[in-house]
Specification:
Elements (H helix, E strand, L loop, with lengths): L1 H5 L1 H10 L5 H27 L4 H20 L3 H20 L8 H9 L7 H28 L2 H41 L1
Helix pairs in contact: 2-3, 2-8, 3-4, 4-5, 5-7, 7-8
């Protein structure tokens, strides 16, 4: 359910892009839609959990700035930069966590969801830097598609291609983590 909630603005953007018959106007309707959907997402999250999710706030601010520029200047290039900026902000957060605090960002995120999951520090650091590199890569891929293909292709890539790339990366992350989960189980059995 949270997955759908997190991707609600992207889904709304995709649907809104295809509403106007004139495809060139679709990007502007989609931009208005993602700004409104991101605001609704933040409000709904607050109503449900009485707190704000940092990812939603960062995304909303970037959408508001770049979406606002897209609408005001009638230039779609700004909204096309939004995924890159958001991904690079996330990458900076992952990299910065190596220097701030005792735990890297990925470790904090995972242990908030599952307190029992434990790995050696080098595993957490490898996973964390993998996410940082992935977000940098995703930002560059977005720019390549935005500048090399039509807006319609970019919208489809943003909706389906980025989702597929994320899914493939997550499979790789889980395979890497699974190896250490098995080692942890063996260590636990030997101690018993």
């Amino acid at each position: 359910m949270k997955f759908l909630f997190d991707f609600f603005p992207v889904i709304a953007f995709f649907i809104a892009f295809y509403l106007p018959e004139e495809r060139e106007q679709g990007i502007y309707l989609a931009t208005y839609t993602i700004i409104i959907a991101s605001f609704i997402q933040i409000c709904a999250y607050w109503l449900l959990y009485k707190k704000f999710e940092k990812m939603h706030i960062i995304t909303f601010v970037v959408v508001l700035i770049f979406g606002g520029l897209t609408i005001y200047l009638q230039d779609e290039v700004f909204i096309k930069w939004k995924p890159t900026i958001v991904n690079w902000c996330f990458s900076l957060a992952f990299i910065g966590s190596h220097f701030i605090g005792k735990k890297v960002l990925f470790q904090r995120m995972v242990t908030m969801a599952d307190h029992k999951l434990e790995f050696p520090d080098h595993v957490w650091r490898n996973l964390n830097i993998s996410w940082a590199i992935f977000f940098i890569f995703l930002g560059f891929v977005n720019l390549y598609v935005a500048y090399s293909f039509s807006t319609e292709f970019w919208v489809n890539f943003k909706a389906w291609g980025m989702t597929l790339i994320n899914f493939i990366f997550l499979i790789g992350i889980f395979i890497y983590m699974y190896k250490y989960l098995k080692e942890e189980e063996i260590d636990t059995q030997e101690e018993s």
